[in-house]
Amino acid sequence: MVNSINDEDTRLLAQTAQGSESAFERLVKKYENAVFNTIYRFTGNQNDVADLAQEIFLKVWRNAGKFKGKSKVSTWLYRIVVNHCLDHRNKRERLCLSLDELSEKEIVPDALKTQTDHIQVQTIELVRKAIALLPDRQRLALTLAQFEGQSYKEIAEIMKIS
Questions:
Q1: Which of 20, 53, 126, 151 is most buried, judged by most C-beta within 10 A?
Q2: pTM of the prediction?
Q3: Cβ atoms within 10 Å, residue 161
Q4: Phi-psi region for residue 95, left (φ > 0), alpha (ψ -120 to 50) or beta?
Q5: Is 66 exposed, middle or buried (0-12, 13-18, 19+ CB in 10 A)?
Q6: Domains annotated on the chain, with CATH
């Protein structure tokens, strides 16, 4: 099953390289949530997610023909996401990691009223803040492993480490 998914992704990317908009749309639909989540977890800034995702998928469109097949398409795509997020961060004077911009309504539904739920909300917020304080590479590794379900081997390839 895994090989058939990899083969399908490779086929879609090859068709994208040949200019197939429908193949590209299928790739975007398949990976857009993962890309959006990775961007948000990396930057911590919800306002940048859509713009960065659009720029990333434009890079995928333009560079589809450069895929060498030495890794899975998803690994190649995550590498593009990581590089683009790093470039974005380096272009800014400082990385905007403020999670204070998120209102409690965005983090927690209004229906949560019990003290246990309040404690859980505080714990989630503390964890998010702690993750935001991690150095970029550690935050990226944690995000890829815990939130995106990447294997350690895939994370090593994405981060270009052994």
A1: 53
A2: 0.61
A3: 9
A4: beta
A5: exposed
A6: 2-96+135-159 (1.10.1740.10)
